[in-house]
What we know:
The protein is mainly α. Helices cover 40% and strands 7% of the residues.
Amino acid sequence: GFDNTPFAERLRRAGFFVARGSRSLHDLTGPAMASVLNMEPTPAGSDPALLVRENKVARFLSENGYAVYDFPYRDFAVQRLAREHFAHSLTRESLLFDDFIKALFDMSVLYPFSESWQKDEARYLSFIRRHVLFIFDKLPEVARRPGPKFVLVHLYSPHAPFLFDKDGGPVPAEHSLDYSQRRYYLEQYRFVSRRIAETVEKVLAASAAPPVIVLQSDHGYRGSFRKPLHHVVSAAEKHRIFLALLLPGCDTSRLDPALSPVDVFRVILNCYLGQRLPLQSPRTSDSVSVRNCNN
């Protein structure tokens, strides 16, 4: 029931189209991200991580001269075509929880130590916290790099664990998965939303040309998977997402307020790269017009 109107309005003032009625096709991260990046529903029984790694959007943009970068969470949202992976800042925690380094330990005599390190909850929470802050700090720097680029960011928060209070301060470890009090989720949501808006403004200031920006949650609020369940979350809530698009030069007046995630990059490729991809959202015109479009 939290009203995020101030966040949405701040984005609108910056020129974003906010699709208030958008719904994810999937309620799990892997299939949801794969559907967006491949512009189609994720087939049952497929490997979502592989579909993200080999996604159609990155391949098309790479073939058309775009440098591909990503900010994955551990080993997820890594793209094969990425010129550089900004996985995390180099810290003691990142060495303990990086999936590649852990795999090296797992194949060595140090295997028992890596297992015990991975069970250190305080260090794990510190790793995720540093990772989230690293993304906010690094993105404007990547935006300053010359040439066209496609940057994929998988921002783990405001998903649990709860690591930030409303001012960005730490949350006690014993409350990192505390769904019994909604304030832990809501305070993290407020902080992350504010940092996203601030980072968008920094990216806009750092970009040599007006950038295309997609802000999208992969799925809706799902509550806790752990028992006891403190409240039941409906299927509709699990699929309700936040979606905002900054499309400089594109006429967003014809976009459906319930724009489907599979149409996000269809719209972008149609507007900026001359494609004529059919759209699934019933109230969006297939021929979204371009006004002074800057590639």
